[in-house]
Amino acid sequence: MNDYQTMKKIQKALIVLLTLCHCLCLSANNSYNSEKDIYRKVDSIMSLMTLDEKIGQTIMYSGDWNKTGPYVTSDNMKFLKEGNLGSMLNVYTSKGTKELQKIAVEETRLGIPLLFGYDVIHGFKTIFPINLGIASSWDLKDVEEVARISAEEASASGVHWTFAPMIDIARDPRWGRISEGSGEDVYLTSEIAKSYVKGFQGENLSHINTILACAKHFVGYGAAQAGRDYHTVNMGDNELRNVYMPPFKAAIDSGVETFMTAFNELNGVPATANQYIFKDILRNEWGFNGFVVTDYTAINELVNHGYAENEKHAAELAINSGIDMDMMSGAYRRFLKELIVEGKVDETLINEACRKILIAKFKLGLFDDPYRYSNEQREEETIYRTEFLESARKIASKSSVLLKNINKALPLNNKQTIALIGPLAKDKRNIIGSWAAAGDRNGKAISIFQGIKEYLDESNIMFAKGCDINSNNYSGFNEAVNIAKKADKILMVLGEDYNMSGEAASRTNIKLPGLQTELIKTLRDELPNKEIILILMNGRPLDLTIEDSLVDAILEIWYPGTSGGLGVADILFGKYNPSAKLPITFPRNVGQVPIYYNVKNTGRPISNDNPTEDYKSNYIDSPNTPLYPFGHGLSYTTFEYSEIKLSNNKVRESEILKASSIITNTGEYDGHEVVQLYIHDKVASITRPVKELKDFKKIFLRKGESKTVTFEINSDDLKFYINGKRMIESGEFEIAISGTSDFEFNKTFNLTLD
Ligand code: NOJ
Predict the structure, then answer these.
(1) I need a labelling partner for 161 at 20 to 30 A (CA). Which of 93, 461, 517, 539 fits?
(2) 295 is catalytic
(3) What's the Cα-to-Cα distance from 717 to each of 193, 610, 711, rounded to whole Å?
(4) Where do the domains of the chain lie?
């Protein structure tokens, strides 16, 4: 060994010793450090870091457990060993993450632990209904429970960070990712956003069963032009602030630690390099101090957008917009140092980014014990715990929306003979939906058929597939007709293949694919008087106009998850009385899209008495109204609402207005009802939607029982943004309490400012 090598060895030993001391004293009483302590410790570590190492913390590459985008490098191990990789995505299992963590901790100069991120969207192993389904429960406790259980399982499997919740408002069912959000409404999505964040992050991130949440995709992604994924978004500032941004602000209010950029451009500037949304709004106006990660390869994509000349320029634009971490593009790794030397990027930006990322690692306790999330025994004891599967069953029931039910076609009784027909009746692969994390598509999930068997003797169930989800093969039709003839009732389980929704799965046709509708028609023609119950698995609002005219009952179960078959059977046989309500409008046809309940009025609104009047805002070939409106969902019982009562019909800005209604269960079953409060600001400096959800309560009523539901409305509920300012204006407001968004206002109040 020559002198130089000896010197290097001594130097390395010193650094390791110094780092160890730092980490030890950092973690000495980490249970658990105040923010101030963490900041001090991070400063201390950063004082040891080279610029390369700091840049390394801003870089995230994928492992190959899962593929959620194109691979851009296979060199991630090399970067990891060099200490140039701070985070990885798509890696999990306690064993796998431990092996990777070992490299980061033991083989790199400073031993800074890796952060493992993963798309834990609606469950990790135990898969819950897709998010649009979860939103249909309108049950914030359930949403939190989903996120809590997801965090329990994911954290036991090495995952520190989920790329969720996805809180993009979406009003276009052509867009495949509508399945992953909570629907079209600002208030509902914002409340749900808070519950997801609370569930994932728990009370304190230092607890071993919590993971970082990520509010995504900032912002406007759900408004992709023509429903085509990744497409352009042009939107005025008022709409951006009043509709698309509030869920993100709600996530911050709930303490979300990270944000993800959106793929789309917004008014000509791609989100990933958009200083207005990230610097002006997120950081300066909202004071967000967590870190921002790009979406997958979104920095490279700035070149395709026509916004950056090349990838180096793209890296410059992104870091200068305050984007802290580069997911998969490799541009920060390749160019940041050069850009600093050239004076195009200020080194303080790298310091800030690195600092925020290290703070998150500290909060998770990774500097105390980098392997704390990678414990095989804990993983084994946690995954698929019985109570998780039970919760998934309950939430599958609570997420299934009864869209139609004539002549009490549902519930079924256990004496009937059933013809169970359809490509999804025995399915265990699609039932967990898209974005199903580490969910099992090969047998773990309970099919609808298995669920029904819990209630009905197998001899009372005849099965025929009838057709595939998406093919032109009629050969199974005869068998379906034959068994239907012998049965008391026909139960059809139809829908979309799971990968027809989710990322990069936009459709221009939102009907049931393949021959499925033909199959219903055939059965209806052959058996005009037999009840047909349609159970639907799909990831978007579909055009069900024909189906609605042919069948007696429709139960929208979305993709109900690992215990889906059981939860759905509980509804079919009346053990659970359906209570879900649509978080999104179902159009009559794709031509009505985008369609949502909280539209503006136009200068030529139609009147209900004469909806086809000429020179009014209508279609000449379709009604304006949807097939099923937002907030709609039937129960086996019926609820009656008394007239709304106000504490006053004049209210001052500083006062609270109370609005109440008596709800009575007038039917034959006990049940839950989602009571919804809507308001319409009649005249304002910018036009306001014809109705807006402002609050809701989910109540339980035994048959015959009545309850008074009271909402308190304060000035905050009446505010909206005009030109970047949150305003309240005096004047007349309409108000209603209802079980659906499909109602007419008949009560008003007047607001005066203080
Ligand atoms: C792309 C998706 O848009 C994003 O939501 C996801 O988190 C990343 N891929 C990582 O898988």
Answers:
(1) 539
(2) yes
(3) 18, 33, 11
(4) 1-118+346-384, 388-592, 639-752
Considering the four listed CATH numbers 1.10.260.40, 3.30.70.1130, 3.40.50.2300, 2.60.40.10, the one that applies to the domain covering 639-752 is 2.60.40.10
Is residue 259 lining ligand 1, measured as CB closer than 6 Å? no
So what's the pLDDT on residue 22? 45
The verdict on pTM exceeding 0.90 is: yes
- What's the CA-to-centroid distance between 651 and ligand 1, angstroms? 46
Cα–ligand 1 centroid distance for 482 (angstroms): 46
Are 388-592 and 639-752 the same fold in CATH? Answer: no
Distance 232 CA to ligand 1 centre (A): 18
Q: What is the mean pLDDT of residues 2-26?
A: 44
Query: Which of 64, 65, 68, 118 to mutate to test ligand 1, by most ligand atoms within 8 A of the CB atom?
Result: 68
In 10 A of CB 146, how many CB atoms? Answer: 30
- Report the C-alpha gap between 307 and 649 in whole angstroms: 53
Give tens-digit pLDDT for 104-150.
999 999 999 999 999 999 999 999 999 999 999 999 999 999 999 99
388-592 is classed in which CATH architecture?
3-Layer(aba) Sandwich (3.40)
CA 255 from centroid of its chain's CA atoms: 17
Rg of the chain over all Cα atoms, to the nearest angstrom = 27
Q: What is the pLDDT of residue 597?
A: 98
pLDDT tens across 551-563, in order? 999 999 999 999 9
**Ligand 1 pocket: which of 89, 260, 294, 501 to mutate (most atoms <8 Å of CB)?**
260
Q: What is the overall mean pLDDT for the chain? A: 95
Q: One of 142, 295, 543, 570 is an active-site residue; which one?
A: 295
